[in-house]
Amino acid sequence: MQFIPDGGESLDGHLVIYVANGGMAVYRLKVKPDPLGIADVEAEEFSYRIDGTTLTFSRQLERADLYTLSGRKVRGASHASSLSIDGLSPDIYILTGRGISPVKIAIR
């Protein structure tokens, strides 16, 4: 588990949870200011798993795109709950989508 702060004076950031099967869950944490000093935290739930040649999401995304670390788009879909990773080389990729923060994905 790792918390990655946005930086600056904001307490917002990302909580990354790694699981034993190679999956990862990423939560966007937003801290709402409270005049009494007590803050509420909202988590944007999103996780994924790799099932053979398919990258399956925990929820449907309005738009999902998979990029190489050099920024080349290799896959994309609208209204997607999964993406095919068939034929992709083992590497680190970045998943972006509407409603989620960018996620690093290791394909082995």
Short description:
The chain has 108 residues and is an all-beta fold. The protein has strands at 2-5, 13-18, 24-32, 40-44, 47-51, 54-68, 73-84, 91-97, 100-107.
Provide structural commentary.
This protein is mainly beta and 108 residues long. The chain contains no helices and nine strands. Strands 1, 2, 3, 4, 5, 6, 7, 8 and 9 form a nine-stranded antiparallel sheet that branches. A hairpin with a 7-residue loop joins strand 1 (2-5) and strand 2. It starts with a strand and ends with a strand.
Mean pLDDT: 84
Please identify the structural class as seen in this structure. Answer: mainly beta
* Gyration radius, in Å: 15 Å
| Through-space gap between termini | 21 Å
Mind describing the biggest β-sheet? 9 strands, antiparallel
User: Helix fraction?
Assistant: under 10%
Would you identify the regions where 5 or more consecutive residues have pLDDT less than 50?
none
Shape designation: globular
Number of helices: 0
Order of helices and strands: EEEEEEEEE
**Percent strand:** over 45%
Number of strands: 9
